[in-house]
Amino acid sequence: MRNNSYGSRNTRGRKPFGYKGSNSGSKSGGGNRRGKYIDPKKFVNKSVTPQDRVEYVPQHNFTDFGFVKALEDNLSQKGFVTPTQIQDGAIPEVLKGRDVIGLANTGTGKTAAFALPMIHLLKTRKEQPKGILALVMAPTRELAVQIEEEFKSFARGMQIYSTICVGGVNIQRQIRELSRRPHVVIGTPGRLKDLENQGKLDLRNTEIVVLDEADRMLDMGFIDDIRFILDKLPTKRQSLCFSATITPEIQKLMDTMLVDPVTISVRTAETSEHIEQDIIPFASHADKEDLLEKMLAQPDFSKVLVFGETKWGVQKLAESLTKKGLPAEAIHGNKSQPQRQRALRAFTNGKVEILVATDVAARGLDIPNVTHVINFDQPSNYEDYIHRIGRTGRAGNHGYAFTFVQQR
Prior knowledge:
There is one protein chain. This protein is an alpha/beta fold. The chain has 2 domains: 9-51 and 273-406, Rossmann fold (3-Layer(aba) Sandwich), CATH 3.40.50.300; 62-265, 3-Layer(aba) Sandwich (Rossmann fold), CATH 3.40.50.300. Helix content is 33%, strand content 15%. It contains 13 helices and 13 strands. The chain has helices spanning 69-77, 85-95, 110-123, 141-154, 171-179, 189-197, 214-219, 223-231, 248-257, 285-296, 311-323, 337-348, 382-389; strands at residues 100-103, 134-137, 162-165, 184-187, 208-211, 238-243, 262-265, 275-282, 304-307, 328-331, 354-357, 372-375, 399-406. Helix 13 links the parallel strand 12 and strand 13. Helix 2 (85-95) runs parallel beside helix 3. The longest helix is centred in the first third of the chain and has 14 residues, at 110-123. The radius of gyration is 22 Å and the shape is globular.
């Protein structure tokens, strides 16, 4: 293995590439051109040590939940034996018809926690499902696509149909899909509101509504759209709300949408104890790109998410890295949804090891085994920083996060 001072535990403490130390105080710039100043010391957490993980002991196997046979067969074929903690706690309550608050970080298996009991409940209705019976709202197009892909995988061959309604793609196709009366609709709040305003989204018979990553939807300004959609749903329904945090605004929303909810909390610390964080000082833009290339060339940087500030800058950086023998894909708002999905799929499947993205990839994405997050451009605020670095160090794995800070 080549010299690696950023990502390898056995080289921890060595300072390559002109590293001058992260405790540089006022000599380091901790802001960007569109956000608030962030003290560079907040980007540093080098005291991470390998920890003995306390393995969660499930109370159930998936075969204990009493799912219909077709669903059990699909889970068996996927190799699902024991549930994660959020699944173990939430699934029995959802099956009882309870409203549920699920407090859990991303990457803990929340999709299955609501999708599996939802499929079972729809399949065991006394009457055959007709029209939209379940609605799932998610903060981003990428997360909505991931949810639908998982849902279809779980419901394979069960004649329960879903469709996705998100912005950034042709709305006419979504209108045609809705005219076929799918049982489950998965979408982002803005597009769902547009479709309802056009009279194309009939929610009058919806029996289950799910808010996934509720805190992130509110962070992104979707509160009014969410309330608009909730007002169109029947009063008598089952409501599920999954979130990593409970802010006063989220609590107020849940107070209006949930009835006698049960809370399942498996949430861990906001900044994962498994993520080692440090800064990368640089003097000029050319110096910055040179440092990045040297980092990415190291073998331990095997699945790296690089965050940039602007759509133009992200695209240019991905193209520059590719030309220099470091194949990279880019995700940003100027790309169509199919283009973004192809880039994400290539990164997830390991066809490329570098994904350069704006903050569109910081929220609501479940990308497994990201080894490093690099903030090539600093986030606009510390909350965005937390979301960014949360793409690594997931499910108890060790992760690394580095933030470029200009020396003054």
